[in-house]
Amino acid sequence: MDFGRVVTAMVTPFDDQLQVNWDQVEPLINYLIEDQQSDSLVICGTTGEAPTLMDDEKLKLIELSVRYSRGRCKIIAGTGSNDTSHTIHFSQKVEKLGVDGLLIVAPYYNRPSQEGLFQHFKAVAESVQTAVILYNVPGRTGVNLDADTTVRLSHISNIVATKDCANTDQLTRILNEAAPGFLVYSGDDSNALPALAVGCQGIISVASHVIGKEMQSMIKYYLEGNIQQAAELHRKLHPLFTGIFRVPSPAPIKHALALKGMETGGVRLPLVRVSEQEGQFIQSLFV
Question: What 8-state DSSP symbol labels residue 14?
Fold first, then answer.
């Protein structure tokens, strides 16, 4: 399964009442595919505010995304939770919608052992036939899915990739030891080029909502051997890579989208919109 080089973790558009703006889903998908050149989209991930979406909202969003993408990109659905039973049940429902992959986050709050993590992901993967992508984000979950456990999981036939927000040391160990064909994606925009340099497939990105074309160019330069051009573009984009995480995501990227003319509304509590000062800072990143 090839999910491409630049995968956008899509925001969920809301209306003024913070209900899902169903009319805005198709324009947003078209924009991310056509204008920002996303190879794949993650629906109902962290950036999509999955923790505050109801299951019925998620199912409708995923179904519409499969329909509206019309085969122009891969659709990956975030179906993980900190409850193995619920993750299995929900993943089986989502699988029937025709998605190309399932993104399963490491269980948060419970803080399981490495063996608990292995058994969780193994149980989920064995309950579905769809490709599974592991998601390691210790800053949000409170637990690191370490390299050894990721390598063990890579030998399960339908666990095909990982999105890992760890440092390049961990990414490198996974790349060295994982099963043949297992793909590693960085989950940290500012690490996109360094991760590519050690052999990662690409980036599962937030910044690609607004600089996806530039990120594709950076990766193309690198793959063609134009290392200096890739590095120069990385340095140019770096302030935005880091700046959109100065306050909790996805509020900054939703503001950045509005600056681009793509209105996706506010964020649900306990998140809040960016302040006026924060909005001015985000705008300054595009100067």
Answer: B
Over residues 124-152, the mean pLDDT reads 97
- CA distances from residue 264 to 107, 198, 242, 285 in whole angstroms, order as listed: 28, 35, 21, 19
Cα dihedral 162→5→274→20 (10° resolution): -80
Residue 72 has pLDDT above 70, yes or no: yes
Contact indicator for 253, 207 with CB cutoff of 8 Å: yes
- Rounded mean pLDDT, 232-236: 98
List of residues 6+ apart from 125 with CB closer than 8 A: 132, 153, 156, 158, 159
pTM of the model: 0.97
Strand partners, 20: 14
222 is catalytic: no
Catalytic residue among 31, 58, 74, 135: 135
| Per-residue 3-state assignment (H helix, E strand, C coil) for 132-150 | EEEEECHHHHCCCCCHHHH
Mean pLDDT of 21-37: 98
33 is in an annotated binding site: no
Q: Is the separation of the CB atoms in 112 and 136 below 8 Å? A: no
Is there a catalytic annotation at residue 163? yes
For a pLDDT cut of 90, what percent of the chain falls above it? 99
Confidence grade of residue 1 (pLDDT, cut at 50, 70, 90):
confident
Who's near 217: CB < 8 A, 6+ residues apart?
233
Active-site choice (31, 58, 74, 163): 163
Q: Annotated binding residue at 149?
A: no
Identify the three-state secondary structure at position 162: strand
pLDDT exceeds cutoff 90 at 286: no
